[in-house]
Design a protein that fits this description.
Strands 1, 4, 5, 8, 9 and 10 form a 6-stranded antiparallel beta sheet that branches. This protein has a 5-stranded mixed beta sheet with strand order 3-2-11-6-7. It folds into 2 domains: about 10-145 and about 185-215; about 245-415, Sulfite Oxidase, Chain A, domain 2. With about 425 residues, it is α+β, with helices and mostly antiparallel strands. The longest helix is centred in the N-terminal third of the chain and has 32 residues, at about 45-80. It has helices at about 10-35, 35-40, 45-80, 85-105, 115-140, 160-175, 185-215, 245, 290-295, 325-330, 355, and strands spanning about 255, 275-280, 285-290, 300-305, 310-320, 340-345, 350-355, 365-370, 370, 380-385, 395-405. Its main location: membrane. InterPro entries: Cyt_b561_bac/Ni-Hgenase, Di-haem_cyt_TM, OxRdtase_Mopterin-bd_dom, OxRdtase_Mopterin-bd_sf, TAT_signal_bac_arc. It is a multi-pass membrane protein.
Length: about 425
């Protein structure tokens, strides 16, 4: 081996190739992590390793950017007369740097204020909606088979085979070349336009839905984008009658938009069969039906709601039964150390320490902004733990057990921290 460094062109080619592979795998892993239809399939033991792969590749993408920076000046000089290449380079650099910076905030979410994470998630999504279709288009239209020159026999509908043969002979022996009609579109243009149209049709509906929800809009009239609980679909009757403060929505209405994540099929509830239970290490195990549960004394609070994936909804008005009041009513034995929560889907569980469970702002909520909580967002009753990330705020809550041992919750088994405090 000569030990010589690879030439400038070879360095650029290597960086381009490695960046292409990394962006491809980042795209696949990122879409799988965000795709609701495969979310349940991944939630077993696949999601966290997939997330780690996505993070590692993101870091490697940053390394490639650092390796490219010393070559950038020479590269720009080389393509200064090629505006299309300069435009492509600029757009790709914006994509890569934007993905990298927003990804770092989402990766180290606990080191940044929730507002930063919310903004980073919007930026990351926005760049993905524009960047992935562009990269697909850019890659496909530069494949070798797309660059082959056109080889067509041009013939009008009025030409007969004999006439075409005569004209071809005349042209062959004439000093004046025959001017053939130029087609208004060639194969490469047709394929490029078709690909662009297909990508637009595929991406546009989801993009506009994302745009509406991420900017605070929704497909319902309720703040936070929650679906309206209607009498036609609500099987949890009667509806809870909101307290005066909750009716007036003392927080001014939720700001942001809830994203629906679920690891199991959405359960169905009816007031005739629904019940709420407290048992375990308590003096008086208790069970309430829906009407009895609604008769319990409730309170109203305004708090922010933060998901560990990066999004937040601010100034939610929650109304419900304080968890501490439920524990006091059941009577907690001295041997109890932790509070275990059960979801109505029969799968999801989580825990808080007894000290945490007695914090003033933890409640079992039945109303959000003065309205019943839709099933898709954890209703009819869900736990609210404002100072912790939302995986502690168990949806469809219908059971509490006091225990004297540690319990590893659903997400904690899959790599999430048991310490879920939000950094503010």
């Amino acid at each position: 081996m000569s030990g010589r460094k690879p030439g400038f062109g070879r360095q650029l080619a290597d960086l381009h190739r490695w960046n292409g592979w990394i962006v491809l795998i980042l795209t696949i892993t990122g879409l799988l992590l965000a795709w609701d239809d495969v979310r349940g399939w991944l939630e077993g033991h696949f999601r966290n390793p997939l997330k780690q792969v996505h993070i590692i590749l993101g870091v490697l993408s940053g390394v490639l950017i650092l390796l490219y920076i010393p070559l950038m000046k020479r590269h720009l000089k080389q393509i200064r007369q090629r505006p299309k290449q300069k435009g492509n380079l600029s757009f790709v650099m914006v994509l890569l740097v934007g993905w990298l910076l927003s990804g770092i905030v989402l990766w180290q979410i606990r080191q940044f204020p929730p507002e930063w994470a919310n903004g980073a998630l919007i930026v990351h999504d926005l760049l993905t909606y524009f960047g992935v279709p562009y990269i697909i288009y850019h890659s496909v239209t530069r494949l070798r088979w797309m660059k082959k020159p056109e080889r067509r026999a041009i013939r009008t509908s009025d030409d007969s085979p004999v006439q075409a043969e005569v004209e071809a002979g005349i042209a062959a022996h004439s000093s004046i070349p025959r001017e053939e009609p130029t087609p208004w579109i060639n194969r490469r243009q047709f394929l490029k336009w078709s690909l662009g149209a297909a990508l637009t049709v595929a991406v546009a509906p989801s993009f506009f839905r994302w745009l509406a929800t991420s900017t605070g809009g929704s497909y319902s009239d309720l703040p936070g984008g929650m679906k309206e609980v209607t009498d036609a679909t609500n099987k949890m009757l009667p509806n809870p009658i909101p307290l005066p403060d909750s009716v007036s929505v003392i927080g001014g209405g939720a700001q942001g938009h809830f994203r629906v994540y679920t690891v199991t099929p959405l359960p169905k509830f009816e007031s005739s069969t629904w019940s709420f239970t407290i048992n375990g290490l308590v003096d008086k195990p208790m069970t309430w039906n829906w009407e009895q549960f609604l008769a319990l004394a409730r309170k109203v609070q305004v708090s922010d709601f933060h998901c560990v994936t990066g999004w937040s909804v601010y100034k939610n008005t929650w109304e419900g039964i304080p968890l501490s009041a439920l524990l006091q009513q059941a009577g907690v034995k001295s041997t109890a150390k932790n509070v275990k929560f059960y979801s109505g889907d029969g799968v999801y569980t989580d825990t808080l320490t007894l000290e945490q469970a007695n914090m003033d702002d933890i409640m079992v909520a039945v109303l959000h902004d003065g309205k019943p909580i839709h099933r898709d967002y954890g209703g009819p009753a869900r736990l609210i733990v404002p100072k912790m990330y939302a995986y502690k705020s168990v949806k469809w809550l219908n059971g509490i057990e006091l225990i004297d041992e540690e319990h590893i919750g659903y997400w904690e088994k899959r790599g999430y921290d048991n310490d879920a405090w939000v950094e503010t």
